[in-house]
Amino acid sequence: MTFRLTLWYTGLFGALSLGVFLLVYVSLTSHLHAQADNELLDTAREFEALYRSHGEEALTSEFRREAQSRGVSRVFFRLLSAKGDVLAASDLEAWSGLEPPGSGSAGPTTGQPTFRTLSLPGHRHKVRVVIEPAGGDRAIEVGMTLRDAEIMMERYRETFGTALALMLACGGLVGWLLARKAMSGVQRVTTTAAGIGKGDLARRVPLGGEGREIDDLARAFNDMLGRIEALVKELKEVTDNVAHDLRSPITRIRGIAETTLTGRGDAGDFREMAATVIEESDRLIEMINTMLEITKADSGVAELAGDQLDLREIVREAVDLFHPLAEDKCIGMTVNLPEQPVLVLGDRAKLQRAVANLLDNAIKYTPSGGTVTASIGADAERARIDIADTGIGIDEKNIPRIFDRFYRCDESRSSSGSGLGLSLAQAIIRAHGGGISVKSGIDEGSVFSVSLPLHYPPH
Ligand code: ADP
């Protein structure tokens, strides 16, 4: 890319310089030609006047005199007849190869001066000639070598050629430096990407002052890296947790099997072992099923029944389900439901599961004597379910993590649970176009709020 940019830059620079050169060259050439033509015509007209006033003899001697003074190899003068024969001329020794113009070309009959450019054999430079009618079937021919003009143009070409070569070299160098500077930002992104390829996810592209576009690219790249790093970290944690949570029940299964095998071996022991194996296996299956459910709901592949549901029914049923558990723990349960139906579109079983998980937690993390309150509210567009408890609460620093898979706060590790309940609830609510949030503090109780889009059928 740097090479190509340099090439483009140099090419463009060269083409522009060449264009300027050609323009100057053409205008300079035409200016020099016009100057030569004017000089020729002026001289021819002076001779014409002399010829008309003093005749052929005076003209002939003036031819010689003038040629001497201007240089016999630089100019020549001739008096021509109508047929183009030479009647008188200046010193033509230096003008070998110069023919009489021949009949018709002398042009005395046209009345107008005629210009020609000749290439004489054996002469390096061209010759510019004018033939001026002088009356009485005579014409005066004035010729001049274009040597000076051609040498000047030659010098110009040489000077420009050298200048162009120098300019191209400088242009190429400047182009290369510019392209390198422009590309250095991309280079930094590439170097960082290469570093990441080796597993160093903490690397970031340093922001340099190359310009907004490159900095935007670096920023977007860094954001993406941040997300990838967080994702990989989460994946690692989930894998660690899964490994840990799977190992505990399997260790228990192995433990009881071993004890039974090395024990007395009576039927009672085997029955106890079988019961424990079943119980632990059920927990494992439940955990795996929940994980699959979360993944499905998160990725949007879970098929959601699009039924019209009254949230009041869902909350009431869930509260009824948990009433006995709350009573056992001496926890009071209150429900505040509006009188009007609160309709949403969704999957009854899944929403019930989400609300049940929140109620389960509220009861689990509230000591005896506390209260759990379930209430429903709604604004113009969204329904809201609040599950509030007066329990142990959640430390502020843990709040951002409680929805992560397998995350359990230290305060609650003594209670049963897998750390998947809130993840599943959140995945279900999100799949319904809703959101879930929490307000809590240690020993202040917690309020989990679910919001869902309302759906009223058109009248
Ligand atoms: P668990 O199976 O541990 O209950 P969850 O995903 O349901 O898993 O909850 C994650 C963690 O959030 C819990 O371990 C607990 O520390 C905290 N938590 C959830 N709900 C509450 C609540 N109502 N009161 C206090 N802590 C809670």
Radius of gyration: 52 Å
User: How far is the first residue's CA from the last residue's CA?
Assistant: 63 Å
Unreliable spans: none
Main sheet summary? 5 strands, antiparallel
Number of helices: 7
The neighbouring-strand order within the major sheet is: 2-1-5-4-3
Mean pLDDT: 88
Order of helices and strands: HEEEEEHHHEHEEHEEHEE
Query: How does the overall form come out from the CA principal axes?
Result: rod-shaped
Provide a descriptive summary of the structure in words.
- The protein is α+β, with helices and mostly antiparallel strands and 459 residues long.
- It contains seven helices and twelve strands.
- It has a five-stranded antiparallel β-sheet, covered by helices on one side.
- A hairpin with a 3-residue loop joins strand 9 (371-378) and strand 10 (382-389).
- The radius of gyration is 52 Å and the shape is rod-shaped.
- The two termini are 63 Å apart.
- The protein binds adenosine-5'-diphosphate (ADP).
- Adenosine-5'-diphosphate (ADP) binds at residues 357, 361-362, 365, 389, 391-394, 402, 407-409, 412, 417-423, 446.
Would you summarize the structure shown here?
With 459 residues, this protein is of the alpha+beta class.
Lay out the secondary structure.
Blueprint: H1 2-70, E1 75-80, E2 86-89, E3 114-118, E4 127-135, E5 138-145, H2 147-197, H3 212-262, H4 267-299, E6 307-310, H5 311-328, E7 332-336, E8 343-346, H6 348-364, E9 371-378, E10 382-389, H7 421-431, E11 435-440, E12 446-453
Parallel strand pairs: 7-9
Antiparallel strand pairs: 1-2, 1-5, 3-4, 4-5, 6-8, 9-10, 10-12, 11-12
Helix pairs in contact: 1-2, 2-3, 3-4, 4-7, 5-6, 6-7
